[in-house]
Design brief:
The structure is a single chain. The chain is mainly β. The chain is 0% helix and 47% strand. The chain contains no helices and eleven strands. Strands 2, 4, 5, 6, 9, 10 and 11 form a seven-stranded mixed β-sheet that branches. A four-stranded antiparallel β-sheet has the order 1-3-8-7, with no helix packed on it. The chain is globular, with a radius of gyration of 14 Å. The N and C termini lie far apart (40 Å).
Length: 127
């Protein structure tokens, strides 16, 4: 059973930086995808960034491109989300998710294709 544990959220002022971490139990297969989603109050869950574990190819939502960076540490089975120049609009609960794949498939950005989720970590950006 895959378990994902996020950490690193908090309350910061606009313009600050935060780094989220997500530690996965067990091995992450090279064709698997890891992603960060977020959900603000009253809004639907949305993709923030995703990474293909083996190749390191990435996807970013337009709203965070150039400010956020997703990365992974294969030795620690951990994925990170470096968030710079945070804006009040980034306030949300951030979730880590894993899509286990054994065949080479395109990187997924759809929440319904990720069966494993962390508990979420709150990020609050004040103006």
């Amino acid at each position: 059973q895959v378990q994902l544990v996020e950490s690193g959220g908090g309350l910061v002022q606009a313009g600050a930086s935060l780094r989220l971490s997500c530690a996965a139990s067990g091995r992450i297969f090279s064709n698997s995808d890891m992603a960060w989603f977020r959900q603000a109050p009253g809004k639907e869950r949305e993709i923030v960034a995703a990474i293909k574990w083996g190749t390191g190819s990435t996807y970013y939502a337009a709203s965070v491109s150039g400010r956020f960076t997703i990365s992974r540490d294969n030795t620690k089975n951990t994925v990170y989300l470096q968030m710079n120049a945070l804006e009040p609009e980034d306030t949300a609960v951030y979730y880590c998710a894993e899509r286990v794949q054994f065949r080479p498939v395109p990187l997924s950005t759809r929440a319904d294709e990720y069966p494993y989720w962390g508990q979420g970590t709150q990020v609050t950006v004040s103006s």
